[in-house]
Design a protein that fits this description.
alpha+beta; Nuclear Transport Factor 2, Chain: A; four-stranded antiparallel β-sheet; 1 helix; globular
Length: about 70
């Protein structure tokens, strides 16, 4: 399962070339979990992403995502 809007996020992450990340927040929304993560690359290139995760059987999968900064 690939989320339809994951390709723009993947492209933005590729441009940042993250070397590390920082979890800014996490919260439960029903059965799903929402994470905001800041990806930190070289030369002050950063990207913040909000992603929604859901459990399918024994596997956690991304079911939504967006660039937030």
């Amino acid at each position: 399962m690939v989320v339809a809007n994951i390709h723009p996020i993947a492209g933005a992450l590729a441009a940042v070339r993250p070397e590390r990340y920082e979890v800014l927040s996490e919260k439960q929304e029903g059965d799903n979990y929402i994470f905001e993560v800041k990806y930190i690359g070289k030369e002050n290139k950063n990207l913040c992403v909000r992603s929604k995760w859901a459990l399918f059987g024994d596997d956690w999968k991304v079911v939504g995502g967006e660039v937030i900064k």
